[in-house]
Amino acid sequence: MDPRQKTRWFLAALGGLAMGFQPSPPPKLQVLVVGGGPEPKHNQVAIESNVRYMDRVKPASSEMRVLFADGDPKSENVLCDSGKGKTYYRAPQLPRQDGPAKTEAVHTEFAGLADRLKQEPDSGAFLYFTGHGSPNNRSGLNDNYFDLWDKQRLAVTGLAAEISQFPKKTPVTVLMVECYSGAFGNLLFEGGLPDAPLTDHRICGFFASVPQRQAAGCTPNVNEADYHDFTGYFLAALTGKDRMGRDVGGADYDRNGRTGMDEAFAYSLVNDDSIDTPVCTSDVFLRRFVTDRADPEVMATPFAKVRAWARPAQRAALDGLSLALKLDGEDRLQTAYQEFVRNKIDSEDRRDVQIIRFVRLGKSVVLQHRLAETGTRELKQRFADLLKLEAANPLRPKG
Questions:
Q1: Residue 392: count of CB within 10 angstroms of its CB
Q2: Is 27 exposed, middle or buried (0-12, 13-18, 19+ CB in 10 A)?
Q3: pTM for the whole thing?
Q4: How many helices (DSSP H) and strands (DSSP E) are in the chain?
Q5: Structure confidence by residue, pLDDT tens digits, 170-218
Q6: Residue 212: which residues within 8 A CB-CB, separation 6 or more?
Q7: What sign has the CA pseudo-torsion 342, 345, 350, 355?
Q8: Domains of the chain (ranges plus CATH)?
């Protein structure tokens, strides 16, 4: 295009804008927060703090709805500890409450969210659950619960049914930070059933713990500077601001100028100073579809190969955890695995927690390489699509 053509094009564009032909604004991200404990004594102030943090870091253009505890902003149901040996209850201090975190309200809210998404299916949904969780031993920990108010519960299969109302093209991100939350990785499959086919919905998720373990973040301590949990590290890396408003950097591992959720996840694996053992949906995908290698064989893979196969964020986490654990040498994954099998799965020892993270991460890297080598074209494409969702940043979209 010669300079005169460029000038005419530019003036025409300006003329169009002057006449009111504005480009359409991007669709609003729909944010739904479900928070609180099942009763006042388990409705700790840290859970309330997580809701406020989510409100601060959500996109300015987003639409957010909050279901919290009993839904009454005047109820003194938030458990606090001032640090002087006495606990007390006070009313929630939240920017909004749109209803209780109870089964009927959750169902109503999801129906309304589905209707809004049908109007703008490309807008995206960000579902954040902060509170307590319970194991469902009868399901083999595959259908664990998020604990709702008044001791009601939302199972993996129940949440899958709610999400099934959304348009299939809508990108859905699920962030759950309760105990035993890793079971919700089964949202990848139809009906939330671990042996069902992959869902056609575009879902990715990040969870604070493996299905067998508790998670951090349910303290009555009112001093937010003392909080160490998956919410704090994940959202800080993703948005560049921690819950105290301080700048956070160092998670752009591929150096493309922005931090994706996969990078925030890797940042949390290294930096989360708590009992959390985070899980993401790509971990769940790989363990379902790549089953031709037993764990001892996987863990015998030389570390140089594992590191070479890893994506930039995974590589940074492998290096960071190796340093924290003081592991070196080509057999470090095998050494860690041997320590892992000797430890109790529910151990809260810091080293034991880091061992779990390191072993799980190493396994995911080996399995993703195996999928690339032997997987069907369809499975490789579905995995690539999932990785693309996990690498997005719905809270800080481009532009």
A1: 18
A2: middle
A3: 0.93
A4: 13, 10
A5: 999 999 999 999 999 999 999 999 999 999 999 999 999 999 999 999 9
A6: 135, 141, 180, 182, 345, 346
A7: positive
A8: 30-280 (3.40.50), 291-374 (no CATH)
